[in-house]
Design a protein that fits this description.
This protein has 9 helices and 14 strands. The protein has a single domain, classed as Acetylglutamate kinase-like (Carbamate kinase), CATH 3.40.1160.10. Strand 10 (179-180) and strand 11 form a beta hairpin. By secondary structure, it is of the alpha/beta class. The strands form 3 sheets. An 8-stranded mixed beta sheet has the order 3-6-2-1-9-13-14-12, with helices on both faces. The chain has a 4-stranded mixed beta sheet with strand order 5-4-7-8. Strands 10-11 form a two-stranded antiparallel ribbon.
């Protein structure tokens, strides 16, 4: 079982509002098709970030901080719609490669408290996997019992689903070749990273608007999954090079590997 995330920085231009990298997205969908063809028994859960769609809208309305007033809930709906617009592009790219993808939006299936997922419908995803379909999740708005609303990142969705689905590999594909010890200078790429090393390096959140915390949050969420699943293998890598995602799905070990 593999969890693969296509980062928002990979499938959109985060410096521009709602700018999909159409050619990159089409190539990535083709690589997923090729990996599934090479390994017919591959069980894969695909997730994607919000990129220049949901993050900008969420920052504008403060949806990740909660909702109480009518204006807050209007913002909630607009952030939901922004995330859906990008998700439609992803699903269309998969469909163009004849991949039987089915969407499982957290806004319709998850309930949070103080930003943490408390419940999420898992059984439909399990049935999709058993049927040979490709379930797709993504960063989305969610209802929050403490604050009214919140934003759940793809990593948080993965962390919740990891328990019942038991992934053996977590692949986080973005535009960076891995984790840098000196971001944003980008001169010291780390082949491996463990929790003890986090205090000695500078992990900035993100170079563009990212209400879910950017690289720092991704690393911490992934390490949390590794605590819960001791056999989990995690790689943070770039999906920019043609074939990188396909090879990762087929067993390659790209980028920075998180270790205990």
């Amino acid at each position: 079982m593999i969890f693969l995330k296509l980062g928002g920085s990979l499938i959109t231009d985060k410096a521009l509002p709602e700018a999909v990298r159409e050619e990159t997205l089409a190539r990535l969908a083709g690589e997923i098709r090729e990996a599934r063809a090479a390994r017919p028994a591959l069980r894969l859960l695909l997730g994607h970030g919000a990129g220049s769609f949901g993050h900008r809208a969420a920052a504008k309305f403060g949806t990740h901080r909660g909702a109480a007033s009518g204006d807050d809930w209007q913002g909630f709906a607009e952030v939901w719609y922004a995330a859906q617009r990008l998700h439609r592009h992803v699903i269309d790219a998969l469909d163009a490669e004849a991949i039987p993808a089915v969407s499982f939006p957290p806004s319709a299936s998850a309930i949070c408290r103080a930003g943490e997922i408390q419940t999420m419908a898992v059984e439909p995803i399990q049935h999709a996997l058993d049927a040979g379909l490709l379930p797709v999740v993504f960063g989305d708005v969610a209802f929050d019992l403490a604050h009214g609303s919140t934003i759940v990142s793809t990593e948080r969705v993965f962390a919740y689903l990891a328990g019942p689905l038991h992934p053996t590999r977590l692949l986080l594909a973005g535009i960076e070749p891995g984790v840098f010890a000196d971001f944003p200078q980008r001169s010291r790429l780390m082949p491996e990273l463990n929790e003890a090393a986090l205090d000695s390096i500078h992990l900035q959140g993100a170079s563009e608007t990212d209400v879910t915390g950017g690289m720092a949050a991704k690393v911490r969420d992934a390490l949390g999954m590794m605590h819960a699943l001791p056999d989990l293998e995690v790689h943070i890598f770039s999906g920019e090079a043609p074939g990188a995602v396909r090879e990762a799905l087929l067993g390659a070990s790209p980028g920075t590997r998180l270790i205990r």
